[in-house]
Amino acid sequence: MKVKVVRRLYWDFEKEELWLNAMAAKGQALLHYSWGTYRFEQSRPGEWTYRIELLPELASKPASQEYLAFMADTGAQTVATYLGWVYFRKLTADGSFEVFSDLESRITHYKRVLALFVSACAGIIPASVVSIINVTRGELTLGFVLPLLLAILLSIAALLAAQAVRLARKVRVLEAQKQLFE
Asked: Residues 6 or more apart from 83 whose CB is under 8 A from it?
């Protein structure tokens, strides 16, 4: 069994899911994921359908274990768990594979992902602002390294904020759809 390793980072779980399904369509089945490293093995093209979900708690917690067991009962396999994210796959031959059964569960998931991005952004911005203040006061100097580090941190914060805005819009659209059906 030849294993193919691909290193990629995604900010957007939907794009990551699309990419995993495109890889599956080419006959690459995800075996494992950890910090931007995907391991694939050869499979029949289109054999698997992949879904990604952010769990409310870490996968090691009892409630998450119960949920993963429930998903296994539906025929979905847990390929990997990483920092609260779970990567599921199901045989395409078994029919359509959706993790969320209704709009409310989908909205709840998007809100969880939104909270993750907002909290990550909220953690970076204050540290960056304090560092900038200290640099401008002359209390902190590391030559060109510190400004470069701050630029990187602020860029990451901007990316996180942009993703949070995109997710907030998605939540609003889904909530509007839900209102139509009530």
From this structure: 58
